[in-house]
Structures are given as structure tokens and as C-alpha cells.
């Protein structure tokens, strides 16, 4: 009896397994057939559609030929699920900036907007417009500088505690909850872009805002590196809080002369809010360059030389202040 | 025991006299002032200093570099003189070891004073990254502290044993302490063998460790792009400069101790003569590296380098620069070349000059470079284009210097300055040689 029993049980299991396998294969096959049918089914033409190929040419296809690919859906979901990690940054992006020196009139709207949006209370603005003249014999020009967000950032190399870090989307940011205030990064940066909170920053506004949004973490996407912390280093952050929402950094939108272009190197496009240009062509045509290229820091900020300027350099002198970059409330 | 009676009488640690008490109290007052200033700095932030986003390092860092440099005296005198079998070193080595220990401990303390967030010190261990020169410093400084402490301690064992016996009836508690510290030293052959072996290992070990310490200190600067720091010369430059600072400090302390404790029988003119020659050698080597550092960039005259060097040679920092070069290096070399210049008192004055010069030299390495970045200084307050330490910075810096002197003072109070047992043995040997010669 016992033997029989186990035998029948075995048989049952065997059959069950086989049946299961067949159904599984069948199901896969069916879905495949179904998906193929699906694609062919919608033959009824609904119009033409313009698309861009990977090499940049525009092609026209029948919209019935277009269907959403499975993996893109999945990826989107994954991205949504994955919490936005401030240290990692956004996947498949590489943010760059182009600054057209030919257009800059030292209007300083960029600086004002930056100071306001980052609640800067120190003496040293993150964004500065330098009065530049290489030599007595060459023409002067205005040069706005932000953090260069270098691909070989000297500051990141020397940081002893990994408080300043390079993200995969190109941004160099500071974890001011970890920074020990040794200022080695400031000494390492050849662009003098880093500033230090020598005293309590007293950024009442942002602290209130964070409380209202129930944010206690400094390193959330909305408040990356904000507010400033006494005894730690700050610098231009390329506004991760705006680019996260597909908006441009504050300096770009504030500039009345369209000096700043912001974009994605992988997409090969940059925009100043008014015109959108192809990055590689722009740099080629206008002879784009980077500051102190010889140091090997590989900045993410490109400059277009100050050629064919429509305005006199002197016009900007009115708003030039040698000893001040942050307006303080009286 | 008989041979030791006179030696013990002369060399056993003595209680402070009136002057000693006043000296110690002065040091403590200075330290307390420094601590008060430091607490204020912690409360208000480093805004109390005159540092700014351009002069982002100041007197704290140059003072730190000075301490690191001075701590090199342990390596140069103890290890190098030992390996080259210079027997005259006996009465001065322990003083060198004491200075070394005090300086390197203070170096470790001063560097944290410069930190904006000393409360996050542990991050260096929690999140430490090997690629940062600061992490190398975090590793090498405690290593050097340990090695120099051992180098001070191992040769002390026989003396501690002797002192334990000496104080047995007079001061039982002190005797007990010395006995514990002597690790049951009896002077047996087996113990002597272990002790000698340990000392040679440490004496050899301290050479690479000392060189690494100075080099890493130089690399804190030369790994950066800044003009004046970005130099392949810097490691060797710092090592030679450290020898100058160390030997200079040694000369000063040796002179003071000889006078205060009346050690003329043990530390003689011969020792000053030898130390003087040694100091000349270190100064000459340092001058050579200074030439490399300043003359060659001036000849190729790259724009940034010329600006930097002109600020030193003829500009804002010229008085200080020439004081350091002429007062701190050239005059000492000239004076010490004469036999009369190597007498104790002139040596003391020269030693003070050298140490002062060495201290300001570090200031000149740190500050002018920072005030000449690649992009012009614009858009910041006018006073950010200059740097001179604030009252807080001076108080704290003087406090650290006083603290290092206090460490030396305390060690001198409880540790025999001149090795007693070793001196006795050497004298016996000398007697023996005399007798056999007869």
C-alpha cells in the first residue's frame, strides 16, 4: 500500500510539473504572437510623425509604425522607484554650461538671482562677473564664472572625507553635513570658486521653508546643500533643485542678454531659454574653450570668446563693484 | 653605585627654582589665554580670525608646518648622528628627543585648530579616503608621535632604574613611579641586549618615518595647482628646512638647560662647536633649495611665478622675506663659520634667530601664494586682499607655542636631561683607555 501511494504521488507530481512547463511555454509563445499581432493590427494610418535618429537627422515616419518600446517603460518605472540619490545624480545625463562672453554686459542679474535663490549671506557670491584683461594690449571683457563642475575635479581628489563628490550627471556637490572645514578643496580649486562659511550663515528664510516642507535632511533633491552650515564650504551647485524639475538654473533664466546656455552633453543641446543650439556645433563655430584647460581639470563650463561685441565694455563698468558681490539688506 | 654619586647629584631631575616656577606659571597663563580664544573661535566660528576665502589658510597652518618641521630634530640628531657614529651626541640627544616629542604632539593639536568643524574630527576615520594628502597626514603624524615617544623612552630605561634606587629612601612615591617606568630594569646583560636592539630598530625606523612626515607635509602644498606650491622641489625643500628649524631649536634649548641646570661639565663648548657646524651644514643645504625655489622660476619668468616672486623679493612681503633669508640663514652661516661664533652665547642668539626665521619662513610659504590666485581677486571686501593674523589667531598661536614649551619643561622636570648611565659608561671607557695608553 505504502509503495503504491508514493508511486501515485510521484506520478502526480511528474505530470503536474510537465503540465506546468507546457503552459508556461505556451503562455510565453502566446504573448509573443499576441504582441506581433498587436503591432500589425493597428495598420490604419493616423498620420505622419517627425523623429530624430541617433545621428541627428530628422526623418518622417507613419505614426502607425511607431510603438512604445517595452524597456523604456520599465526604465521609467525604475527611475521613479529609485529614490533620487543626491550623491549619484541623474542617470544618463551630463550637464554642461556655455557662457557666451560676447554677450555679457555685466548686468549682474545672474548674480542677484543666484544670491537670492541660494540665500547667500556671506561676502563672496557663488557666481562672479570678473572684469578681465589679459594684457595691456588686448581688449577688456566681462567674464561670469560659476563652479566649473570639472570632470577631473581637483577639489574632489583632495577631500579627505568624501564630503565633496562628483556625480554621474557631471555635478560636483558638497555634503555640508560631512565637511570637516579643512578648506583643502578651496586651496585646490584653481578657479577660486569655493567659499567658506566663516560664521553662522543665518539663512532664516530657507530654514523656515525647509520646516514648512517637513524637510530635515540637507541632502534631499530640493535642498541639496541648503541651507549653508557654519564652518563648511559652499559653492555654485548648478541648481540641482531646478534641473530636477526640468527647469534651467537661476542664472540662465535671470540673464537679460542670453549669456548662459545650459544643457546636456549627451543630448548635445544647450539652451539659454530663448534659443536651443547644438552644443558641438556651437563650440566648433564660435571656437569655444575652457578656462585653464592646461591644468587638466576638464571643466563642464565652456566659454565662447568675447568677439564681435555689440556694446562697449565701458557700459558694464557702471554696475561693476570691485569690493562687493553680495547685496546685504541695510 | 659610587661612580654615579656625583653624576646623580648633577643630573637627577631637580625641583624648579623660583625662576622655574615663574616660567611655568607664565606658560600656563599664555596657554589659558589661548584656550579662551579658541573657545571663542568655536562659538563664533572662524570669523574671529582674519582668514577669508582667499587667504583661506593662515597662521594656524604655518604654525603647524613649523611644529612638524621642528619635530624633525629627533630624526636628524638622534638617528643620523647615531648612524654616523658621532659620539659627541650623548649629552644632547635626549634634549632633541624631548623637543621632537613636544613638537609633533603640538603639530597634531594645531592642525585641528584650523578645522572649521573640529566636532567632525571622527569623519576622518569614518569616511577617510586614501587619495587625500590629509589622510596621509592623519596616518603619519600619530606614527611619528609613537616612534619619537619610543625613541625617547627606550634609552631612558636604565636611567629610570637608577633614579628609582636613588630616590628609594628620599621620595618613595617618586621612586615607585620611576620603578614602574623602568619596566623592572636591573641592568642585566639580557636586558641590555634587548634594549640596544630596540633602540637601533627605532633609530633606523625614525629616519624613513621622519622623511615621510616632512614630505607629506610638503605634499599638502605641492599637490595643489597654486603658484609657489606647485613645485617638484618641495619635498626636499621641506626636509632641509626642517633640519634647520630642528637644529636651531635644539641649540636654543641646550643653551638654556646648560645655564639653568649648570651642566657645563657635561654640555661643553665642544658640543656647541659641533652643533654649530651641524647648523651651518643644514643652513647651507636649505639655502641651496631656496635658490632652486626662487631663482629658477624667476629666470624662466612665467607670468604668475614672476608676480609671486616679486611680491616676496621686492613687494609687500619683502621685509619679512629678506629677514628670513639673511637673518635666518645667511648671517647664521657667516657667524658660525668662525670659531668664536660657535661659543655658547653667540650660538644661543643665532639659534633664536634661526628659529624665528624658520617660523616666519612657514608664514611666507603659506600666505603670499594664497593671495595670488589664478583669477583676480574681485567682488570681495577690500581687506580680503591682505592677510595678517587677528588677535584671536595670535593668542591661540602663542598658546600652542607655550604649550610645546610647557611639555618640554615638564619632561625636563622629571626626566634626566643628560643620560646618566650612558655618560657614566662613556667616562669609564675613557678612563680605561687612558690607563691602557699609559
List keywords for this structure.
heterodimer, A: about 325 residues, alpha+beta, Alpha-Beta Plaits, five-stranded mixed sheet, 10 helices, 13 strands, B: about 450 residues, mainly alpha, Formate dehydrogenase/DMSO reductase fold, 17 helices, about 75% helix, globular
Q: Can you tell me about this structure?
A:
The complex is a heterodimer of chains A (330) and B (438). Chain A has 330 residues and is of the alpha+beta class. Chain A has helices at 2-41, 70-81, 109-117, 154-158, 184-188, 204-212, 240-243, 250-254, 279-285, 314-317, and strands spanning 48-52, 58-62, 95-100, 128-132, 141-145, 164-166, 172-174, 195-196, 233-234, 260-264, 269-271, 276-278, 301-304. Chain A has a 5-stranded mixed beta sheet with strand order 12-11-10-3-13. A two-stranded antiparallel sheet of chain A has the order 1-2. The model of chain A has no long low-confidence stretch (mean pLDDT 82). Chain B is mainly alpha-helical. Chain B has one domain (4-430): Formate dehydrogenase/DMSO reductase domain (Formate dehydrogenase/DMSO reductase fold, Up-down Bundle), CATH 1.20.1630. Chain B contains 17 helices and no strands. Chain B has helices spanning 4-11, 18-44, 59-70, 73-83, 90-113, 123-126, 133-153, 157-166, 172-181, 189-222, 234-260, 269-300, 303-313, 318-337, 344-370, 391-414, 420-437. In chain B, helix 4 packs across helix 10, helix 4 packs across helix 11 and helix 5 (90-113) packs antiparallel against helix 7 (133-153). The mean pLDDT of chain B is 93. Chains A and B meet through strand 4, helix 4, helix 5 and strand 8 of A and helix 6 and helix 7 of B.
What's a concise summary of this model?
By secondary structure, chain A is an alpha+beta fold. Helices cover 30% and strands 15% of the residues of chain A. Chain A has a domain at 95-316: Alpha-Beta Plaits (2-Layer Sandwich), CATH 3.30.70.
Amino acid at each position: 500500500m505504502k509503495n503504491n501511494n508514493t508511486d501515485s504521488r510521484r506520478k502526480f507530481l511528474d505530470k503536474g510539473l510537465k503540465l506546468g512547463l507546457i503552459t508556461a511555454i505556451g503562455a510565453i509563445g502566446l504573448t509573443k504572437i499576441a504582441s506581433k499581432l498587436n503591432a500589425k493590427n493597428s495598420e490604419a494610418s493616423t498620420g505622419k510623425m517627425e523623429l530624430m535618429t541617433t545621428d541627428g537627422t530628422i526623418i518622417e515616419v507613419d505614426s502607425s509604425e511607431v510603438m512604445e518600446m517595452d524597456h523604456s517603460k520599465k526604465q521609467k518605472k525604475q527611475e521613479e522607484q529609485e529614490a533620487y540619490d543626491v550623491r549619484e545624480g541623474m542617470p544618463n545625463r551630463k550637464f554642461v554650461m556655455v557662457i557666451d562672453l560676447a554677450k555679457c554686459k555685466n548686468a549682474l542679474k545672474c548674480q542677484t538671482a543666484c544670491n537670492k535663490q541660494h540665500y547667500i549671506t556671506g561676502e563672496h557670491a557663488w557666481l562672479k562677473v570678473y572684469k578681465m584683461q589679459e594684457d595691456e594690449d588686448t581688449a577688456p571683457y566681462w567674464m561670469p564664472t560659476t563652479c566649473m563642475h570639472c570632470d577631473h575635479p581637483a577639489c574632489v581628489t583632495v577631500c579627505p572625507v568624501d564630503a565633496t563628490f562628483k556625480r554621474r550627471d557631471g555635478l560636483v556637490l558638497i555634503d555640508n553635513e560631512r565637511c570637516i572645514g579643512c578648506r583643502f578643496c578651496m586651496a585646490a580649486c584653481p578657479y577660486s570658486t569655493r567659499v567658506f562659511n566663516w560664521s553662522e550663515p543665518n539663512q532664516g528664510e530657507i530654514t523656515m521653508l525647509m520646516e514648512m516642507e517637513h524637510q530635515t535632511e540637507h541632502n534631499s533633491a530640493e535642498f541639496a546643500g541648503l541651507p549653508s552650515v557654519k564652518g563648511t564650504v559652499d559653492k555654485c551647485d548648478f541648481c540641482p533643485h531646478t534641473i530636477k524639475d526640468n527647469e534651467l538654473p537661476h542664472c540662465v533664466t535671470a540673464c537679460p542678454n542670453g549669456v548662459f546656455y545650459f544643457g546636456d552633453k549627451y543630448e548635445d543641446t544647450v539652451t539659454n531659454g530663448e534659443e536651443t543650439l547644438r552644443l558641438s556645433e556651437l563650440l566648433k563655430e564660435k571656437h569655444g574653450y575652457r578656462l585653464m584647460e592646461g591644468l587638466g581639470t576638464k571643466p563642464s563650463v565652456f566659454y565662447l570668446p568675447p568677439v564681435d561685441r555689440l556694446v562697449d565694455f565701458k557700459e558694464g563698468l557702471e554696475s561693476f563693484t570691485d569690493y562687493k558681490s553680495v547685496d546685504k539688506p541695510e | 653605585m659610587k661612580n654615579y654619586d656625583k653624576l646623580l647629584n648633577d643630573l637627577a631631575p631637580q625641583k624648579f627654582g623660583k625662576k622655574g616656577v615663574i616660567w611655568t606659571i607664565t606658560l600656563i597663563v599664555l596657554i589659558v589665554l589661548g584656550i579662551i580664544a579658541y573657545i571663542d573661535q568655536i562659538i563664533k566660528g572662524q570669523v574671529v580670525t582674519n582668514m577669508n576665502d582667499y587667504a583661506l589658510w593662515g597662521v594656524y597652518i604655518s604654525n603647524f608646518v613649523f611644529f612638524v618641521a621642528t619635530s624633525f630634530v629627533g630624526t636628524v640628531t638622534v638617528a643620523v648622528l647615531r648612524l654616523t657614529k658621532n659620539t659627541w651626541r650623548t649629552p644632547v640627544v635626549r634634549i632633541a628627543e624631548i623637543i621632537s616629542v613636544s613638537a609633533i604632539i603640538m603639530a597634531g593639536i594645531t592642525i585641528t585648530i584650523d578645522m572649521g568643524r573640529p566636532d567632525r574630527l571622527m569623519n576622518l576615520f569614518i569616511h577617510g579616503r586614501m587619495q587625500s594628502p590629509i589622510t596621509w597626514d592623519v596616518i603619519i603624524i600619530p606614527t611619528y608621535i609613537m616612534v619619537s615617544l619610543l625613541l625617547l623612552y627606550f634609552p631612558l630605561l636604565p636611567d629610570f632604574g637608577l633614579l628609582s634606587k636613588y630616590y628609594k629612601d628620599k621620595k618613595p612615591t617618586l621612586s615607585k613611579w620611576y620603578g614602574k617606568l623602568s619596566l623592572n630594569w636591573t641592568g642585566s646583560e639580557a636586558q641590555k641586549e634587548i634594549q640596544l636592539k630596540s633602540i637601533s630598530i627605532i633609530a633606523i625606523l625614525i629616519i624613513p618615518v621622519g622623511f615621510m612626515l616632512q614630505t607629506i607635509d610638503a605634499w599638502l602644498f605641492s599637490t595643489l595647482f597654486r603658484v609657489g606650491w606647485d613645485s617638484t622641489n618641495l619635498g626636499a625643500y621641506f626636509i632641509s628646512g626642517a633640519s634647520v628649524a630642528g637644529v636651531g631649536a635644539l641649540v636654543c634649548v641646550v643653551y638654556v638647560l646648560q645655564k639653568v641646570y649648570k651642566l657645563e661639565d657635561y654640555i661643553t663648548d665642544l658640543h656647541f662647536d659641533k652643533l654649530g657646524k651641524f647648523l651651518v651644514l643644514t643652513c647651507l643645504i636649505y639655502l641651496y633649495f631656496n635658490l632652486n625655489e626662487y631663482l629658477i622660476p624667476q629666470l624662466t619668468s612665467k607670468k604668475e611665478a614672476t608676480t609671486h616672486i616679486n611680491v616676496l623679493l621686492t613687494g609687500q612681503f619683502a621685509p619679512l622675506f629678506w629677514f628670513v633669508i639673511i637673518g635666518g640663514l645667511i648671517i647664521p652661516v657667516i657667524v658660525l663659520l668662525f670659531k668664536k661664533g660657535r661659543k655658547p652665547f653667540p650660538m644661543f642668539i643665532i639659534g633664536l634667530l634661526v628659529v624665528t626665521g624658520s617660523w616666519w619662513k612657514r608664514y611666507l610659504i603659506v600666505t603670499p601664494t594664497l593671495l595670488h590666485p589664478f583669477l583676480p581677486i574681485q567682488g570681495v571686501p577690500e581687506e580680503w586682499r591682505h592677510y595678517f593674523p587677528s588677535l584671536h589667531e595670535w593668542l591661540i598661536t602663542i598658546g600652542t607655542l607655550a604649550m610645546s614649551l610647557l611639555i618640554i619643561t615638564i619632561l625636563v622636570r622629571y626626566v634626566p636631561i643628560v643620560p646618566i648611565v650612558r655618560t657614566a659608561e662613556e667616562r669609564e671607557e675613557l678612563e680605561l683607555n687612558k690607563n691602557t695608553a699609559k
